[in-house]
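Annotated sample (chain length 118).
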Amino acid sequence: MIGKFHALVIDCEDIEPMALFYQELLGMERMEGDADWITIGDAPDRPAVAFQRVDKLTPPQWPSAEHPQQMHVDVKVGNLDEAEERVLAIGATKQGYGTETFRVYLDPAGHPFCLVTS
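Output written by the structure step:
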């Protein structure tokens, strides 16, 4: 092992609504933050999700080779329909892609994420 997973960092123009969106989606709490960086997690010594302010974001388009997704978060849920209703209520956009075991959405800054079941 070379190191330990520390954080997934997501670029966005407006970090506050993104942090709030992912706090609600993942059940995490604010760990630290300033005008250019917010970190959320479930404990100070565990991997986190961080949001880094950028001046101009070109959001990915899923699926597209010209504007690749670059990264996405899979969120495990018990019921896709119930979880979909909740993520749409907090600002997600449905993409219309998926199967019986996953569905694709965009977060408020346009990054794709999936709700998945086992």
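Annotation: The CA atoms of residues 27 and 42 lie 8 Å apart.
Annotation: The chain is about 20% helix and 35% strand.
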